[in-house]
Amino acid sequence: xxxxxxxxxxxxxxxxxxxxxxxxxxxxxxxxxxxxxxxxxxxxxxxxxxxxxxxxxxxxxxxxxxxxxxxxxxxxxxxxxxxxxxxxxxxxxxxxxxxxxxxxxxxxxxxxxxxxxxxxxxxxxxxxxxxxxxxxxxxxxxxxxxxxxxxxxxxxxxxxxxxxxxxxxxxxxxxxxxxxxxxxxx
Length: 186
Description:
- The chain is α+β, with helices and mostly antiparallel strands.
- It has helices spanning 2-28, 98-115, 120-123, 127-139, and strands spanning 61-70, 73-74, 78-79, 146-154, 164-169, 173-174.
- The chain has 4 helices and 6 strands; from the N terminus they run αβββαααβββ.
- Strands 1, 2, 3, 4, 5 and 6 form a 6-stranded antiparallel β-sheet that branches.
- Helix 2 packs across helix 4 (127-139).
């Protein structure tokens, strides 16, 4: 009889704790609680915050386009955005996703800077700009004398005449003979 009361009490406590955790999780993930920390109400117990894509879902893709000048002249713009293969194994193990993700994050940061009308000289001194420039340098031909890159937002669900919006166009960047080989570390 005493063990039945202990089991019943433990079950009640466990169900109550689970219910409190679920209620706190729901409250933590409502739109109005974006910056609210529910741990003050749960005695320090960590509550998951599942934002995923809300409140700003992704509606565009950012593409990196590059053109270069060689002895023959200037080349047309070409898309050098890394293609990340998707398959069921990437859920468990995907070591090749870090490089493209870092480049994507840098391009997103440059998009935000552009949307906030950041000064171009300040943008060109930022780490995201340097990362995008390094990716652009790796994509041009060895005999290129200068390069220019363009970040382009592509809205797949927009009408055809509104699908592309340029974000940032670099100046022509001279490469010269001081180009480092691909993979070199400074």
